[in-house]
Amino acid sequence: MSGKLKKPKFTGMKIYCNTCKRDNPTCKHHDSHVYRVRLHVKGSTKGVKVKTLLSRDYDEAVDEAIAFKKEMVSVNYQPEYKPKERTSTVQTIQTLVSGILKYDQYLNGKHELVHLRKEVGDAHRKETIRFCTYFCDAVKKIDNVTLLPISEISQHHVAAFYSWAEKEYAPRTFNKMMAAMKGFFDFIVAVEKIKMENPFAVYVTKEVGKQNIQTLSKTEFEAVLEAVDNASPIFNMKTGEKKTMFYPYLKNAFKLFLLTGGRREEVVDLKWSDLMITVQDVRFFQVANGKVEKQKRSKNLHGATANKFFPVNADLMELLTELGYEEFKGQDKFIIAPERTVSSKTIMDRVSKAFTHYRKEAGITKEVSLDELRKTYLTWMNTIMNKDTKILSSHSNQEVLNNHYIDPTVLSAVEKANLEFRIFAS
C-alpha cells in the first residue's frame, strides 16, 4: 500500500489520515491515507453517517460510497441494530480442570457474579479442592482431562472414583468426599450454567459406625505435663530436620484447653476481658462462637454475634489465679502468650503438634490429640449438665455430643451421683 490517493470529487468523499486522525491531510503519511465518505442525515442539523471505504482505487471507492448512500437512504439513515458483543476476561469453563480452578475462586469469594459469591473457611476450601483433584486423577485413568469437555463427565467416571475412594478412605471421609463432589457439580450446573446433569446427584453413602471416643485420664494428662518439663523437646521430621516442640506457654495452654473445653481458636484467643462476673458472683467467659459466625458468613447471614460461654469452675479458677487473675482481670490481654509476636494460627499449630509430641514422649500409646481435651471436658461436664451440656458446648443437639464427644465409660453410677463439678472429679 503506497502512493498518493487521487483527490476525490464525489460529494462527501474525503481523504482521511489514520495517523493524523484528520480529513484532507497535508502530511506525507501516504500509506495511512484512506477514503472516507460523510453523509448528512436529512432532517437533522448536524447528524452525519461516516464510513471508511476499503478500496484505495478511486473508482472502486466511489462505487462503495454510492452503495453506502443508497443503504442509508433505504433505512432512513438508521443502521441495522446489532446487539453489542459482550467482552469478558472471565475464563469460560470447558474442561474439568478449568472447572476446578473456577470453583476454587468461587469458594474463595472471588466469583465475578457478586450476588452468587460464596466464601467458606480456608481449610474447608482447600479440603474441597483436594477432593476435586482426587476425582480429576480418577478421570485421568479413563480420559484425557485436558481435552474432555466437563459436560461429558459421566457415571462411568463417578464409578471409577467411587471404587477408588471406598478402598482408600473410611466411611466418614468417603461420604464427605462424595458430598463435596456433588457440591462441585451443583456449582457447575446451577451457577456456571453448563448444560449437563449432576453425575453425583445419586449415589449410595457408606454407613458410619459410632465413633470410638477416647478421653484422657487424670494420670495421663499429668504425664503429658510432666513430659513437657522432662522429656526431649526435639522432634525428628521426615526430612531429617530437627524441630523443637517446646514453648514456655505449653503447659498452661494444655490446662486451659482441658478446663474450658473450647475449640482451638477460642482458647488461644481467650482474653482476660472476656471474663464476666454476675451480681451473684458467678464467673464465666463469654466469647464469639467462631463456628456459628463462619456458618453465617458462608450463607451471607447478618445479625447479632453468636456467643458461647465457658463456666469458671473451681479447677479453672485455680489456674486463672496462678496466671495472674488479680493483676490482669478486665484487661484486653491474651491469657496465653500475651506478648505474642506470631499469629494465633501459628500458636494453635504449635500447641496442637506439641501436645501430640509430648503425649508420645509420656509413653501414652492410644491415639489422642489436643482435641481429646475438649472431649474429656465435655464428658465430665455431661455428668453434671446432662442434656443442658449442649447449651454451653454450642452443639445443635445431644446426639452430636453422644456420637462424637461423650465418653460413656468414664463414670460409674455411684461416681456420677457423688461428683462435684471438677475435671477428673479431683
From TrEMBL:
Pfam families, A to Z: Phage_integrase
Biological-process GO terms, alphabetical: DNA integration; DNA recombination
Keyword set, alphabetical order: DNA recombination, DNA-binding
The keyword Translocase appears for this protein: no
Domain Tyr recombinase: 211-418
GO molecular function annotations of the record: DNA binding
InterPro entries: DNA_brk_join_enz, Integrase-like_cat_sf, Integrase_catalytic, Integrase_recombinase_N, Tyrosine_recombinase_XerCD
Origin: domain of life: Bacteria
Keyword set includes DNA-binding: yes
Family, per entry: Belongs to the 'phage' integrase family.
Protein name: Tyrosine-type recombinase/integrase
Organism encoding this protein: Flavobacterium silvaticum
